[in-house]
Design goal:
Blueprint lengths: L10 H11 L6 E7 L5 E6 L13 E3 L2 H12 L2 H11 L1 H19 L22 H11 L5 H9 L28 H5 L7
Antiparallel strand pairs: 1-2, 2-3
Helix pairs in contact: 3-4, 5-6
The structure holds zinc ion.
């Protein structure tokens, strides 16, 4: 996990993100979070795209397994739960505001874009509108920065510590090691959590 400045992005990273998103990944400036196998989990995009469009979502969750797991949370009413939590917990509300400020500071450190100077993602700083954006921030900044993003990752069935990646670039064909889906071993050996 990392916040700016990001390490240089490889061609392979861009190919992987493109395959994961199912559309060309443009204006990629970093891979702030990765699966244990090294595949991108979150992609960082220029605050102003090459075509001039402002792009507030610096931390975009791109991993198909992670996005699916977070979508399940959204479908199960977790955003409403978090909204209630925010309303009843002053400390949580303050920390969520701090997460918004941290997000802005990260993006401002890359480039100031006037149109989105006070805009972050996911509904921050006062609402809960997209758990993918909050989880993307939490996975990049690390635990303790975005409390609702942390909670979303924790509640989801996906973990950054267990690889369940697919063969996004179609590399397994003809491979000696084609004895099962990549990540199968890690997934099947994952410790079962009680409760
Ligand atoms: Zn993986």
């Amino acid at each position: 996990m990392t916040t700016p400045p990001f390490e240089p992005v490889s061609d392979r990273d861009v190919e992987l993100v493109t395959a994961m998103l199912g559309r060309p990944a443009r204006d990629v400036i970093g891979i702030p979070a990765r699966c244990v196998c090294g595949n991108p989990t979150v992609v960082a995009t220029k605050p102003r795209l090459g075509d001039g469009t402002p792009f507030p979502t610096l931390y975009y969750l791109c991993h198909p397994g992670a996005t699916a797991a977070i979508s399940t949370l959204e479908a199960n009413g977790v955003m409403a739960e978090m909204t209630e939590l925010l309303a009843s917990d002053d400390d949580l509300r303050r920390r969520y505001h701090d997460a918004h400020d941290a997000y802005l500071a990260d993006r401002e450190g890359i480039e100031h874009v006037a149109e989105i100077a006070h805009v972050t993602a996911g509904g921050m700083p006062e609402r809960v509108k997209c758990l993918h954006a909050l989880a993307g921030h939490a996975l990049s900044a690390g635990p303790g920065v975005n409390p609702l993003g942390d909670l979303a990752v924790e509640r989801s069935s996906w973990s950054p510590d267990v690889c369940r990646c697919g063969d996004y670039l179609g590399e397994a064909a003809g491979d000696d090691a084609a004895t099962g889906a990549p990540g199968e071993t890690a997934a099947s050996s994952a410790p079962l959590e009680a409760g």
